[in-house]
Amino acid sequence: MKYQLVLQWPCFSEAYYDRLMDPEAAIEAGLGEAGIVDGHDCGSFETNILIHADEPGAALARALSLIRGHGSLDHLAAGCRLFGGEDYIAIFPGGSKSFSVL
User: Fold this and answer.
1) Cα–Cα distances in angstroms (integers) from residue 99 to residues 6, 32, 77, in the given order
2) How many CB atoms lie under 10 A from the CB of residue 60?
3) How many angstroms separate the CA atoms of 67 and 102, rounded?
4) Pairing relation of β-strands 3-10 and 36-43?
5) CB within 8 A of 13, min separation 6: which ones?
6) From CA 6, how far away is CA 101, in angstroms rounded?
7) What's the pLDDT tens digit per position in 18-69?
8) Which residue, 19, 51, 69, 91, has most beta carbons within 10 Å?
9) Structure-derived torsion over alpha carbons of residues 101, 99, 94, 6, reported in degrees to the nearest 10
10) Helices H, strands E: what count in the chain?
11) Helices (H), the chain
């Protein structure tokens, strides 16, 4: 896998973190050949699901289809980077100019 795709939500309390478990499980169960879920983290007021993918756009599209309708798209941002790279590229929502993982 060439890219790290990160799905990111704000995290202001343990309740926000707990809400990540359902989307992560749905993505892990249904992502298939599009990528591999590498876990999650929470800190600095953000929570992230980490995905390894060769085609981050395809992996993102599949992940979005798996979590759509569960309220999981509210406040979601996504970005990707080449493994070994430092800079993320914002890829969701459309028109986003920057993305970072703290």
Assistant:
1) 10, 25, 8
2) 21
3) 24
4) unpaired
5) none
6) 8
7) 777 888 999 999 999 999 999 998 888 899 999 999 999 999 999 999 998 7
8) 51
9) -30
10) 3, 5
11) 14-19, 21-30, 56-67
pTM: 0.91
How high is the pLDDT of residue 99?
A: 94
- Give me the helix-helix angle, 21-30 and 56-67, nearest 10°: 120
Domains and CATH numbers, the chain: 3-76 (3.30.310)
Query: What is the spatial distance between Cα 50 and Cα 40, in angstroms, rounded to a whole number?
Result: 6
